[in-house]
Amino acid sequence: MENVLGLVALACGLIVALGAVGASIGIAIMGGKFLESSARQPEMMNDLQTKMFILAGLIDAAFLIGVAVALLFAFANPFVIAA
Questions:
Q1: Ranges for the V-ATPase proteolipid subunit C-like domain (predicted)?
Q2: Is 4 within the bounds of a domain?
Q3: CA dist., res. 26 & res. 18, Å (int)
């Protein structure tokens, strides 16, 4: 039982950590591409900014879904058999 709980805690940490790293890298790449494209075509900056914020919200939503799954495993663990 302790082994299962330890591995679930490790999995929760990995879910949150890898999700945060992925979201950070995704937003950084997207922000860099936004700056490049707005420097090339300044007249498109307002349209690009709107699309960038929508995509940033979707990237963060994917990370928050991972956090919710990690919290599910941490507090309502489906791998522990209720006795």
A1: 10-73
A2: yes
A3: 12
